[in-house]
Write a structure and sequence with these properties.
Radius of gyration: 26 Å
Strand order of the largest sheet: 1-3-2
Largest sheet: 3 strands, mixed
């Protein structure tokens, strides 16, 4: 009896992938790789700066190039008058100890009022000053929004205030609270009085247009309000997260 042989099924040829599909897959892989690498690098830098003081920022380098030199003397929080830290927080971000990088209440108030002003927290300003560039752009705001929660996770609140006070611009070419205290009042940051601290905090939104040494009546009024705010956040516990 003759054996019958079954015909082998024909193997189906794999459909050819179009160049456009291959390009999309390549772009997806490299985009994912870029995002993951950026997150890892950013996280590593943030963790390093929790313990190591950042160097000159991009804006400082630009100002040094423009002016020829700048002044900055880095000091730890232990050498900054506590009233200075409270004044800066009261002036810029009174709810600093209660949010995770974004003050949603302040953002809602700005949106509802329709005002053309920002609601940036101290954390956001620190991210911008240390890692990004000045100027308004959607790209910078997007990067700021992405990095801010990472900063809050990597640093303590006390560290955020310390770095902020050491890189903030207080006059043309004058960066950091130590240089500012010497520049305006001839004292160290550790010796600042409540009035002097409030005046320094009052000029932060526009340091090149305001003077802590010769304040206008409007600046004096703002400084008085900041003094009250600094005392308030000390009493109600909103300064506890960055004080010993």
């Amino acid at each position: 009896m003759a054996k019958t042989t079954r015909a082998k099924p024909k193997s189906r040829a794999k459909p050819r992938t179009s160049p456009a599909t291959r390009l999309r897959r390549w772009l997806r892989r490299w985009t994912l790789w870029f995002i993951l690498t950026s997150l890892l690098v950013t996280g590593g830098v943030l963790l390093a700066h929790r313990y190591i003081d950042p160097g000159l920022t991009l804006y400082m380098k630009q100002e040094r190039h423009r002016l020829g030199q700048i002044r900055q003397d880095w000091v730890p929080m232990s050498r900054i008058a506590p009233v200075m830290a409270r004044s800066a927080v009261a002036a810029e971000d009174a709810n600093f100890c209660t949010h995770w990088g974004f003050d949603m209440k302040a953002i809602r108030q700005v949106v509802e009022s329709g005002q053309n002003r920002g609601a940036s927290t101290l954390s956001q300003q620190t991210v911008k000053n240390v890692y990004l560039w000045h100027g308004r752009s959607y790209l910078r705001k997007a990067l700021e929004a992405a990095i801010t929660p990472m900063l809050e996770a990597a640093w303590t609140k006390r560290r955020i205030v310390e770095v902020y006070l050491n890189i903030a611009e207080f006059d043309e070419g004058v960066f950091g609270v130590e240089a500012a205290a010497q520049h305006y009042f001839g004292v160290s940051a550790a010796k600042l009085s409540a009035t002097q601290a409030a005046r320094l905090a009052a000029i932060l939104p526009a340091p090149k247009d305001r003077s802590a040494r010769n304040p206008t009546p409007r600046l004096r009024k703002r400084a008085a309000s900041i003094m009250d705010g600094a005392a308030t956040i000390r009493r109600d516990g909103r300064a506890a997260c960055f004080e010993d």
